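Help needed: design a sequence for this.
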């Protein structure tokens, strides 16, 4: 599986962790999701809702002129599992080249052992978050001539 280095380190950490520590690690990542930048918090129209999530979950991506991806998430603190997944994606993909983000396998989290600590419904929501994120990146790269392309 080809993953950007930061995401690969996170996956490895979860793979080696006992089940009870996976829950704690997921909770730690939930606390790493930064608040929305002022411009997104003031005008939420740039955020897209991920309807497959049980939790009201919103995201936005930006691909800068160097081709690096920037991620923005909004999920309630009362939903630590989905926020934890957002934290994993943020730490693992923030600032990575857009092609590397698009190359992340849709089920990269399957090897993390999350199925033993998160319900199948939540896992489906996690997959939808990644799919939506990748779709936004693809759309930006296809429509923005200033983005570094293939």
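Sure. Designed sequence:
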């Amino acid at each position: 599986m080809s993953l950007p280095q930061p995401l690969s380190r996170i996956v490895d950490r979860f793979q080696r962790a006992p089940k009870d520590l996976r829950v704690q690690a997921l909770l730690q990542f939930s606390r790493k999701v930064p608040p929305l930048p002022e411009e997104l918090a003031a005008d939420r129209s740039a955020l897209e809702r991920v309807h497959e999530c049980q939790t009201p979950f919103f995201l936005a991506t930006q691909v800068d002129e160097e081709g690096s991806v920037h991620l923005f998430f909004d999920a309630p603190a009362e939903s630590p599992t989905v926020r934890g997944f957002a934290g994993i994606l943020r730490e693992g993909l923030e600032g990575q080249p857009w092609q590397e983000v698009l190359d992340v396998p849709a089920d990269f989290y399957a090897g993390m052992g999350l199925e033993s600590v998160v319900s199948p419904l939540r896992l489906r929501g996690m997959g939808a978050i990644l799919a939506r994120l990748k779709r936004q990146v693809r759309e930006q790269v296809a429509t923005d001539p200033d983005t570094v392309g293939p």
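The radius of gyration is 15 Å.
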